Amino acid sequence: MPTRRFGVLVLLTLVALPFAPHVAPAQVQPSVTAPVIRLNQAMLDLMKSGGREPAWSRLQRFLPVMQETFALETTLRVVAAPYFDQASEAEQRQALDAFTRRSAAQYVDRFDSYEGQTIDIVGERPGPRGTTLADTNLKKPDKPPVRLTYVLRQEGNGWKILDVLAKGTISQVAAQRADFQASLRSGGLQGLTRDLNANTEHLLGRS
Fold this sequence. Notes:
Layout: H1 3-16, H2 34-49, H3 55-69, H4 72-79, H5 83-86, H6 89-110, E1 118-126, E2 132-139, E3 146-155, E4 158-166, E5 170-171, H7 172-203
Antiparallel strand pairs: 1-2, 2-3, 3-4, 4-5
């Protein structure tokens, strides 16, 4: 199945998952792009602290941002299906913690130097089934911008990021689902948790 089509199917699965909606009163309606703005600021902070602060220290500062801005449990339920729903609550908690830390560690690893980069939201448009797509440009001086599109859905009284589309079409969630299959098939959710923790250690240089 082509990557783009698979990414669309994963996105439709994500937005179809049940959640308990609670719309905030109109006078305090949260901004749709608030999570993206928060994430962009944290990414720039990661870049500027790279090379002068230990990776594990940077991870600890970035973890709360990851938890605040991303719908991590919703995403893991999709990328680890059907193993996540078949596991015990304790196994689910351990897997979610490992997934959160590995996801944050990827940002720490990727955004480790600052060369005058800027990150700007350049557009906002409706997505499928009540989602909103926020287009951003990550740009280095004298380089073409890199387009990242964030897929957001309202959960509770705020908005959360469900997926990130590189170049507007390449789904991060679809890539994760493909990457996790070998661990899930060989060791179930516990096997995935083990491999995620090992990968975090590797990304942060402690393997």
